[in-house]
Amino acid sequence: MALAFLNRLRDRTPHATQAPLPRGAGALDLAVHDPVGLPMAGAEVSVRDAGGQEVMRGRTDPNGRLTATLAPAGYHLVITCDGFRPERFDAEVVAGERTAPRPVALDLAPAPQLPAPGRWRLDPDHSSIRFTARHIGLAEIHGRFNRFEGGLWIGEQMSDSRVEVTIDAASIDSGVQLRDDHLRSAEFLDVARFPTLQFTGERFVHKGGSRWTVPGVLHLHGVSRNVQLDTRYLGIGTGMGGETRTACTAAAELHREDFTLDWRKMLARGIAAIGATIRVELDIQAVQQD
Questions:
Q1: Residues 6 or more apart from 87 whose CB is under 8 A from it?
Q2: Among 27, 128, 143, 266, who pairs with 271 as Cys (CB 3.0-4.6 Å)?
Q3: Which residue numbers delimit the Lipid/polyisoprenoid-binding YceI-like domain (predicted)?
Q4: What angle do CA 163, 119, 115 make, to 5 degrees?
Q5: Which positions ≥6 away from 67 have C-beta within 8 Å?
């Protein structure tokens, strides 16, 4: 009964107002559902021409819909969403017409194999820690930390696992020596007093599919703050030496003033600063320990 009501409600929800089609163009009106027939927001749609060139990419709206306005031709569509099997199909766009292919229902993907309980050592040679920030509010700058270590301790229940990463603050590298010297100085990271950054996460929270959240504490510049790593688990593999490896990507957004890094002071002294918000991204491989 409840599902039927939701389906009726969904059907009465108007799609975005349909603008007139450009002269000579047609449109595909797509609808994407989950396995029980409810609309899927945020599903990614890739449209490719006959030569395999991507001509459009977008995401479905809260009603699970997306309209693609295209030149008349045949197209191949791929619809993906984290935790679901990709769906592929072909569609024809006709000039002056709106084509509504059958609603696409995505099926759940099989869960990837989780790492075995025990200790896993982070492999710096096959991992990276990068950051992106604005340079005095203008262009983006990109950098990385070149030296770090850490590990995972996987529990019998994945939710009981923990992670620890320690970063050498002096290894910061933005590709510009003068800027890196400023970032290492007492005005910013103050590596002489605070030689390391450390993140410790005490639990893993499954968000569906391959997505996990790792809440934890970041120790930076003598200050400790709660930070959440949004993580995508990539699975298990075997290295060239026969060792078992696991991998993930993760990202977090930091606000410098949470860690008493004052950019106004740096600007007052004529030092080129980075913006108030910093995005940190990690590509991690870890090796199972005996």
A1: 78, 79, 80, 104, 105, 106
A2: 266
A3: 119-287
A4: 85
A5: 15, 16, 18, 27, 28, 29, 30
Extract the tokens encoding 220: 């930076």
Residues linked to residue 45 through DSSP beta bridges, in sequence order: 58, 79
CA distance 63 to 66: 9
Dump pLDDT digits (tens) for 153-199.
999 999 999 999 999 999 999 898 988 998 898 878 899 999 999 99
How far is 131 from 179, CA to CA, in rounded Å?
14
Contact 188, 265 (CB under 8 A): no
- Read off the pLDDT of residues 194-241 as tens digits, 9 standing for 90 and up: 999 999 999 999 887 788 999 999 998 888 999 999 999 999 999 988
- Say how far residue 31 (Cα) sits from the centre of its chain: 24
Q: Which domains does the chain have, with CATH numbers?
A: 2-105 (2.60.40.10), 118-288 (2.40.128.110)
Q: Which two tokens stand for residue 181?
A: 């010297």
Asked if residues 146 and 180 have their Cβ atoms less than 8 Å apart, the reply is: no
Hey, CA dihedral for 166, 169, 170, 174, is it positive or negative?
positive
